[in-house]
């Protein structure tokens, strides 16, 4: 009896094509008649911005986090003489030196107090002024942007992945795609599958890729992120001009050092993959990386941090005038902290997103502050573009 799985059936279940890249991660895209490109990356779980971008020049940081490795003396890479880059993002240093990487410090959405991941993410993607949007009729700020862009057509926007992203939900026309079937098998079955295809390079490669994307191999986490950014780049090289995607795993209550290092390395590799695959189009691309809220200024008893408020945005791309840290620093003294526990926000993530869309697409400021982000005070131009 031939116990090998039927190859045609296996490949049909996977969709086995470039379109099957995002089997496990939600993404959305918009196609626009412009050469500029915007990528929004949501880091779900609340990335610790005080660890990714370490304000080691504030002496309170080391006192609040005595168990953390902080600053250049502990292996972080100096950026400004006050800020250092976490080693997990070290491969991005050439982008910093080239002015293609920057950070917005002490930022948040208007969400305050309750620190719920679900509510925080809903507010981040809805772009609202602080109240959790109602279930009925809720939409996202990227969806509200689309009708303001000229010459939209049938492929103006489409979503990829099983989990709907609120950031693109709304009345603007868009298509959606999700794989027809998930790949769900025991590790032993996965091993049998790879063994059965051992002598067939074509099908072996397809099987390995599918298992990686489904999280069934030891390289799955990195390969998922790599495939996600590779797929994004492929769409942006074609007619997509806006992409939104999310990466999970940033809720670092315990053993933060190892967990955040893995996440930052995966993010770094993804951004570099995007740059490589976009080629010349990277010069017309801006990436906004944001999270639902920051984390506590002090470490907890399990070498981690808890849900906080003020955080950090990571900005990248050839269109960026980077090599900078934007935003006012509030300080980390007890009196300066919000509720004596969190970094005090001095900037709004929505304002940076609004200025990005104004610079990339020429979207009217009045429309951005009333329709895309109702009630937003954009403030002064931070100067994101050369």
UniProtKB/TrEMBL annotation:
PROSITE patterns: TAT (PS51318). Keywords: Signal. Residues 1-30 form the signal peptide. This is Uncharacterized conserved protein, DUF1501 family. The lineage of its organism: Bacteria, Pseudomonadati, Pseudomonadota, Alphaproteobacteria, Rhodobacterales.
